[in-house]
Design a protein that fits this description.
Length: about 100
């Protein structure tokens, strides 16, 4: 999730997590720009906090719900998803 100056610092103890999310978004945008002229659509998908073995199954969503979000992003219209991270409700996320 994005962080802006003056924002509530709920994730203040996770600077590495936030910086790697930013790096991932930057790489995604880089490839979106690089590959667009070849006809590729590049986007990211945020399936929400799904319960998996990585978080001890404490996520608030079933992994199958996360899979649905990923597939929706994969098949959505280029102008809606290209060079964007799409959340589990189909909206572009700020970063």
């Amino acid at each position: 999730w994005a962080l802006e100056l003056g924002e509530n610092m709920n994730g203040a103890n996770y600077p590495i997590y936030r910086s790697t999310k930013t790096a991932l978004n930057m790489i995604m945008v880089h490839y979106a720009c690089l590959l667009e002229k070849e006809g590729f659509v590049v986007s990211g998908s945020d399936p929400g906090y799904c319960g998996t073995n990585l978080n001890g199954y404490h996520g608030y969503r079933d992994p199958r719900q996360g899979a649905v979000a990923l597939v929706k992003t994969a098949v959505d219209a280029k102008e809606k998803v290209h060079a964007k991270v799409i959340d589990d409700e189909g909206k572009a996320e700020p970063w």
